[in-house]
Amino acid sequence: MNEQVNISFYLNRYGLNSLLPAEVVEDLKVFRYKAGEHVVRSDEYLEYLYFFVEGKGKVYSLQENGKSLLVRFYTPPDVIGDVELFSDRRSVCNLQAISEVTCLAIEMKKMQLACRNNPSLLEYFCRSLSGKLQNFNISSAINLTYPLENRLASYLIAISEKGEDETTVDRIYTDNLTELADLLGTSYRHLTRTIRDFTERGIIEKKNRRIEIRDYRRLKEMAREIYT
User: Fold this and answer.
1) Alpha-carbon torsion angle 8, 11, 13, 15, nearest 10
2) CA-CA distance, 173 to 212, in Å (whole number)?
3) CB count, 10 Å around CB of 151?
4) Which residues are in the Cyclic nucleotide-binding domain (predicted)?
């Protein structure tokens, strides 16, 4: 399948074909990222605006103390760069792929020109920005109001690839629990205690660097859609 066919497929899939003007569609590019690669890094100017059309990514910020903090997850058809589109500022967060990711990209300057006389396009980005603001307000309060078990459950649900059967075992690799503790705004000791508690309750099973979800339904009930 060539790139032009790929672009047409995603435009139709997410209704972008009726939104984007012809001059934008003509200049769209397809960017792909492997799990672990960064789509966006903080403190960088974005050359492109991205339409997130395949896969899953996590957005996190770096704190002054060197720790990272999970902000939210990206799934299709999220927009990357809508804040920078109107502010011309550096990115303040990192976006890292946690599965294979595909984006449709358009140069920022070309999208800025397209927005000048296109109310429908402006409304689309305004809706995207308002949704992000709402999610940010929610995520800012999460670490203060939700216990770690809820945050961990939501994180595991968000990064897992669930099959049609909700009892399917999902495998999640945990290369660095210290990093995960930072992302969830907790200590390494508290995180390991919570993982041990989940294991004893039969919700997950930890094998070396891998976590397997054993009771998806119970985990989802605990998650409360915190990071969605």
Assistant:
1) -140
2) 9
3) 24
4) 23-112
**pLDDT band for position 167 (50/70/90)?**
very low
| Per-residue pLDDT reduced to its tens digit, 87-114 | 878 998 999 998 899 999 999 999 999 9
Cα end-to-end span (Å), the chain: 31
**Is the separation of the CB atoms in 19 and 120 below 8 Å?**
yes
Could you tell me whether strands 210-213 and 38-40 are parallel, antiparallel, or unpaired per DSSP bridges? unpaired
Domain assignments of the chain as residue spans, ordered by start:
3-131, 145-223
Q: What is the pTM of this model?
A: 0.74
- pLDDT for 168 equals 39
Question: Is the CATH code 1.10.1160.10 the one for domain 3-131?
Answer: no
Alpha-carbon span 145 to 178, nearest angstrom:
22
